[in-house]
């Protein structure tokens, strides 16, 4: 009888050792069991298995689901990346849409939305999980996979990456703090990106203001993991400034995830000038006007929250402008839409 699914978990040490030494066994197992689907978890640990996958796709029509936490290890070895034969999907921490009635904003800001964190009821368990998650990343992704040879400066870097989350990246300053060169710092950020633990938010590439800053911002992939990296996971959210930073981080992360899931093909960037003008997110949308977005955790928005948008709007009135916040109702001030953030996501076209 044809088996529905064959599961291959390369985190299991016995299976990993077996297929590392004898990769041809994968083909023998598939041929013998003749499954409709083959799921290989953490496929980047044995890149040569992709040749077997390719062969079976071509000859037997077997369907494969290949999961992994890093594409970085596949590239240097010239692994078969199945160009034209595979679709690539990124999975993110849960979105507020997926959580539906289980979603709680303040919990999401403090703990993040990794699936495991949501199954833990006690604060102590959540703290231990997040701290273990960070530690496991070092052990499995960095040490076991030998992505970084000198672990000490990388450990220092990862703490700084947590502290500077969402700020403009200054490779030279970080390099000076750690005692390494800026190119190495850049490579460390790229490792976080390639292992799906963070993403760049580039500077806006069109001129809206003189002396626009060109360096990107960098965001880690989850608010809870970020708080664990900065050793504050055990501390409740405190000041309005901290809530504001976590809220901005959460909203931008949700935008990135929803854009991918719904296939919107939006391009995100930010604007900052040497004169101090800033816009949290600029969204270029196909066949729609560019929209400039401020993200504020305040429950009441006044003119001081909108000053940067108002300044730009005077010069570029044809663009769209909005502020996502925690107000209860939609309203408009001088052509700027002030919106509860959930309704704002829908207005921007990021949800259906």
- How many domains would you count in the coordinates? 2
Strand order of the largest sheet: 6-7-8-9-11-10
Oligomerization status of the protein chains: single chain
Total of helices: 13
Shape field: globular
Cα(first) to Cα(last) distance is 42 Å
Whole-number mean pLDDT = 90
User: Helices and strands: which structural class?
Assistant: alpha/beta
Using only C-alpha atoms, the radius of gyration works out to 23 Å
Compressed to H and E, one letter per element, the order equals EHHEHEHHHHHHEEHHEEEHEEEH
For this entry, give a set of tags.
352 residues; alpha/beta; 2 domains; 6-stranded mixed β-sheet; 3-stranded parallel β-sheet; 13 helices; 40% helix; 16% strand; globular
Topology record:
Elements: E1 5-9, H1 13-21, H2 24-33, E2 37-41, H3 49-59, E3 63-67, H4 96-99, H5 105-111, H6 123-144, H7 151-163, H8 171-178, H9 182-194, E4 198-201, E5 217-220, H10 223-229, H11 240-261, E6 267-272, E7 278-284, E8 291-295, H12 307-315, E9 320-325, E10 331-333, E11 336-340, H13 341-347
Parallel strand pairs: 1-2, 2-3, 8-9, 9-11
Antiparallel strand pairs: 4-5, 6-7, 7-8, 10-11
Helix pairs in contact: 5-10, 6-10, 7-10, 8-9
């Amino acid at each position: 009888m044809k088996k529905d699914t064959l599961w291959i978990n390369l985190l299991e040490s016995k299976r990993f050792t077996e297929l590392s030494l004898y990769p041809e066994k994968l083909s023998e197992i598939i041929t013998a069991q003749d499954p409709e689907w083959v799921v290989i978890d953490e496929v980047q640990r044995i890149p040569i298995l992709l040749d077997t996958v390719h062969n079976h796709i071509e000859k037997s029509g077997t369907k494969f689901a290949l999961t992994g936490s890093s594409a970085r290890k596949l590239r240097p070895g010239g692994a078969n990346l199945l160009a034209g034969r595979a679709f690539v999907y990124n999975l993110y921490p849960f979105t507020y849409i997926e959580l539906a009635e289980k979603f709680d904003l303040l919990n999401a800001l403090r703990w993040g939305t990794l699936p495991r964190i949501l199954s833990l009821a006690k604060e102590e368990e959540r703290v231990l999980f997040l701290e273990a998650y960070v530690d496991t990343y070092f052990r499995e992704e960095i040490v076991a996979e030998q992505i970084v040879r000198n672990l000490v400066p990388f450990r220092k870097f990862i703490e700084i990456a947590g502290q500077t989350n969402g700020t403009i990246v200054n490779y030279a300053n970080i390099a000076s703090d750690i005692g390494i060169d800026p190119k190495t710092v850049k490579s460390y950020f790229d490792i976080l990106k390639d292992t799906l633990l963070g993403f760049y938010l580039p500077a806006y590439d069109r001129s809206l203001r003189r002396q626009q800053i060109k360096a990107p911002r960098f965001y880690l992939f989850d608010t809870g993991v970020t708080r664990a990296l900065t050793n504050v996971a055990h501390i409740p959210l405190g000041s309005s400034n901290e809530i504001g930073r976590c809220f901005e981080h959460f909203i931008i992360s949700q935008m990135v995830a929803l854009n991918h899931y719904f296939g919107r093909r939006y391009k995100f960037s930010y604007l900052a000038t040497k004169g101090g003008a800033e816009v949290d997110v600029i969204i270029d949308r196909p066949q729609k006007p560019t929209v400039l977005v401020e993200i504020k955790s305040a429950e009441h928005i006044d003119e001081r929250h909108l000053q940067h948008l108002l300044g730009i709007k005077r010069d570029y009135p044809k663009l769209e402008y909005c502020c996502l916040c925690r107000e209860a109702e939609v309203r408009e001030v001088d052509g700027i839409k002030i919106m509860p953030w959930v309704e704002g996501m829908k207005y921007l076209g990021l949800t259906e």
